[in-house]
Amino acid sequence: MTVDFDRDSLIGWLEEKDPERLQALYSEAYRTKVASVGDRVYLRGLVEISNICRKNCLYCGIRRDNGAVGRYEISSGDVLAAAGFAYGAGYGSMVIQGGERADRAFTDRITSLLREIKKRYPLGITLSLGEQPLDVYREWFEAGAHRYLLRIESSTEELYGKIHPSDRLHAFERRIQALRDLRTAGYQVGTGVMIGLPYQTAAHLADDLLFFKSFDIDMCGMGPYIEHSMTPLYAVRHLIPDKMERLELSIKMVALLRLMMPDINIAATTAMQAIDPYGRERAIMAGANVLMPNLTLQEVREEYQIYQNKPGAGEDAAISSSRTEKRLEEMKIPIGYGQWGDSPHFSRTKSSKG
Ligand code: SAH
Ligand code: SF4
Q1: pLDDT digit string (tens) for 37-70?
Q2: Is 271 in the pocket of ligand 1 (CB under 6 A)?
Q3: Measured from the CB, is residue 60 less than 6 Å from ligand 2?
Q4: Is 62 in the pocket of ligand 1 (CB under 6 A)?
Q5: Torsion angles phi and psi, residue 199, rounded to 5
Q6: What is the pLDDT of residue 352?
Q7: Cα–Cα dist 49/307, whole Å
Q8: How confident is the model at residue 290 (pLDDT cuts 50, 70, 90)?
């Protein structure tokens, strides 16, 4: 059953401190998940294809102006090997994520990679490569990608403005337009926000949840903001809640969103695991149903530190994956092996509209 929270009750829940009431909320969200999308968790093998980025988001460790980062691009052969690994491990899907680039060499390479992956493996492919023009989104869709993640970061324009440079490349309206274009191109659209940002209040987060609902998103990936010392936002780190509070807020956001939108896909994100080794599992018990084990090559993982102390920096794909699966087994959470695990919300609400 869908719960229609109003803004004040969302704020109330986001400020709730009573552990028993919160546990009841999480359990209710878990039950809603099982009833609407099932108890399975879907795995998506994540490949961080490149840390080269034209943008300068004030929170991100791989922002253009961070000269301390060694820039890399994973070869197409290595991406195909990761796709083979994901397929062999029974994941059903993969995610290709990276810095935002607009040059034709890059967008063409992604197109041919998508074609090549689809030729070899029947994997579902999600992209997360930032803002692109509609024709690029279309080209990638036609080449075989069918889900796209582009976080709005904050749905409040004023807060968005505080965490991004104030130039056209980083304009809020551009981000919103990109989300609309993704929908036009036919993708299952995923968005999300960072939680526990400087200047962010419970009212902002309540508005984010209402934004997800009104935009009618198909998927959501959100997680705690984690400060990075080589970024401008580090200067205001005294304004952010402590780590455990950021994690708890993130779990609350997952649970509330599951109750508001029972049949979407919601990810348990790596940033939750960065705060608590069992952070992602907690999110699963509060309504999340997607996990993205990292398949990025060990050699370059350390250079994809969008935030510091990202988990798994010294591991390879096999270790990250088997750890993730072992944890889920320990918790008796079934895995949706060999399936794409698409958002039921999308097929129920949009696919017939084309
Ligand atoms: N360049 C693409 C995808 C890579 S960044 C894009 O920006 O969409 C993926 C996500 O990492 C961003 O959407 C942002 O929400 C998150 N991120 C960046 N810096 C972060 C930080 N310091 N803490 C937590 N999440 C962060
Ligand atoms: Fe680039 Fe994405 Fe980081 Fe922004 S968040 S600097 S677009 S990688």
Answers
A1: 999 999 999 999 999 999 999 999 999 999 999 9
A2: yes
A3: yes
A4: no
A5: 75, -5
A6: 55
A7: 17
A8: very high
Ligand 2 pocket, residue 194 CB under 6 Å: no
Any atom of ligand 1 within 6 Å of the Cβ of 153: yes
- Ligand 2: centre distance to CA 58 (Å): 9
Q: Which of 131, 132, 151, 222 to mutate to test the pocket of ligand 1 (most atoms within 8 A of CB)?
A: 151
Q: Dihedral sign, CA of 147, 148, 153, 154?
A: negative
Of 226, 229, 234, 343, which Cα lies nearest the Cα of 274?
226
353 pLDDT higher than 70: no
What's the CA gap between 250 and 328, in Å, rounded? Answer: 20
pLDDT digits (tens, 9 = 90+) for 254-265: 999 999 999 999
Name the strand (E) or helix (H) holding 97. Answer: strand 93-98
CA-based radius of gyration for the chain? 19
Atom of ligand 1 nearest to the CA of 100: 1
Band of residue 354 on the pLDDT scale cut at 50, 70, 90 = very low
pLDDT digits (tens, 9 = 90+) for 185-237: 999 999 999 999 999 999 999 999 999 999 999 999 999 999 999 999 999 99
| Residue showing tokens 């348990």 | 268
Query: Is the beta carbon of 63 within 6 A of some atom in ligand 2?
Result: yes
The region that residue 92 occupies, defined by phi over 0 for left and psi between -120 and 50 for alpha, beta otherwise, is left
- Among all bound ligands, the one having the nearest atom to the CA of 182 is 1
Q: Classify residue 193 by its DSSP letter.
A: B
pTM score of the predicted model: 0.97
Which atom of ligand 2 is closest in space to residue 63's alpha carbon?
6
Contacts of 60 (CB under 8 A, 6+ apart): 53, 228, 231, 306, 307
Is the separation of the CB atoms in 134 and 178 below 8 Å? no
Phi, psi of 303 (to 5 degrees): -85, -5
